[in-house]
Amino acid sequence: MTGPQERPRSGPAWWATLSDEATADEIATNRRRERFVAFAGVAAAVVTGLLLLVVAVAR
Amino acid sequence: MSDSTWHAVLVAVLVTLVAVGLLPAVGGVYQYLLVPVHGFRNHLRRAGPYLPRVAVVVPAWNEGAVLEASLERLMRLQYPPDRLRVFVVDDASTDDTPDVVRAKAAEHPGRIVLLRREQGGQGKAHTLNHGIAHLLSDDWMQALLIMDADVIYRPDALRRMTRHLADERVGAVTAYIREGSRRPGAIARFIGYEYVTAQACARRAQNVMGAIACLAGGAQLHTRANLEAVGGRIDTSTLAEDTFTTFLTQLDGRSVVFDGQAVVLAEEPDSVRALWKQRVRWARGNVQITHRFRRVWFRPARGHRLGAVDFGLVWFSVFALPFTLIAASVGLVGLYFAAPGTAAAVFGELWWFGIATYVFITVTTLLVDLETARRSWFEGLMFPGVGALVLVVASAHPEFWLVTVPGLVGLRMSATGTEVWTLLLYCWPVLSMALSRVVHDLEGVPVLGHLSKPLLYVVGYGPLLCAITLDAYVRQWRGTAQVWDKTEKTGKVAA
């Protein structure tokens, strides 16, 4: 458990310590966060497909 | 050849012109299809803890209003203080720029240095070179960060850039410049959205392609080795010195990386006139780059990806945009007179293309940067302009504007009205560019000036950029004098 005086071992405050361990943790977190753009692309493709379907049916 | 053969040839040419008009959208969609790939294929897997000694060069000409905040934020970067020095190159300012820098240097002894050019006005590249020559005279600097005086780095931005230099193949890194005005007006909100498309999305796609079009002028980090390899100076012969350096770096076999999570805030112009001035310079710079590197395009080579077909397609999709819009209009209007049935068929068959391009690109852009989307979602939706959206609806439902809408108010469109409406739709790509100039000219005019902003939403920000680009091409072709026009900044970035 993290004590009240201990720095958290993850998150921006920990990364700001600039230790190699903290920087590596920040990189790993950013890598995971970057996967959001995959979600964005897939979500946009789904919305586009659905809208095309609706318009095609309504035409 | 018989008349019918000539007619068939004419129709084929006109249909081809319409098809040419679609090419930029194909290039755009291609880039956007690569954006999700970046979620799994990016340079972060090769990044590592690396905090080199970074010299920051800030070119400044009359930047007194914005420098204090920028320097203060640089001093607060989460980066080892003994590995960060800032060099402000004052390009013979006539305001209080030197005083502001001296005051800051006194607060942070040894960490902020003022370099003054007594004779200035030659442009940013010359100013940068003055600073770079000073920095290369000793071996303290391991990496060079070139930035603009008005940009604000988020505390974690620099270290998120340097981590990529742990990979020795990387020559330079760029960050995501986000529009960051405290209270953005309509133009700044449009620019905010544009930067998500042109940077957060397009640069990610270019990371996947392995070729970056441009290191952002306000956030370019070079290794010392790269700087020395490209000649130890910035090219001064073009108006796009940042793109020039980006190309040289990659042609020399080193890669350039964009990190979308290293965020830098910038104040952007909030008037059409200021935007026009800034973008004419950028577009003329791109013409010069396209010409200077003419032996690179579409010639795949070992060691770099600038000559790859997909990168060329993307580059020329943007470069040729004004011409392709003109081609589309000429094609459709020509078909209307030469073969009205074919015109209607071509226009009607493209309904899915217009909708798919608009929805896919808009939704992706809004999702990629939710912070900007909160400020600029309306400008995102209106990016192509109300006119272009009317066009898309007309393509999908030809009866909607001709029957349904007039019917709502008990009217019926006459045959002449239908003809005029149809021609108006077919002309819109060109008409929207012409009206963009009206938006520009109306701005600031007493009373009528109030119409400028609403008209911008009708015309669209995209067509406005095309009109500016076309103007830049004409100026370049005519050989109009190259002027380094500084964009006025007021220091209203949300620091």
UniProtKB/TrEMBL annotation, chain A:
Question: Where does this protein come from, organism-wise?
Answer: Cellulomonas phragmiteti
What UniProt keywords are attached to this protein's entry? Membrane, Transmembrane, Transmembrane helix
Q: What is the designated name of this protein? A: Uncharacterized protein
- Higher taxonomy: Bacteria, Bacillati, Actinomycetota, Actinomycetes, Micrococcales
Transmembrane keyword on record: yes
Q: Which residues cross the membrane?
A: 36-58
Q: Which domain of life is it from?
A: Bacteria
Keyword Membrane (UniProt): yes
From TrEMBL, chain B:
Could you confirm whether the keyword Coiled coil appears in this record? no
- Pfam families (alphabetical): Glyco_tranf_2_3
Q: Does the keyword Transmembrane helix apply?
A: yes
Which keywords belong to this entry? Glycosyltransferase, Membrane, Transferase, Transmembrane, Transmembrane helix
Which residue ranges run through the membrane? Answer: 6-35, 312-338, 350-368, 380-400, 420-439, 455-474
Q: Which domain of life is it from?
A: Bacteria
Show the InterPro entries listed in the entry: Nucleotide-diphossugar_trans (IPR029044)
**Similarity remark:** Belongs to the glycosyltransferase 2 family.
Report what the protein is called.
Glucosaminyltransferase
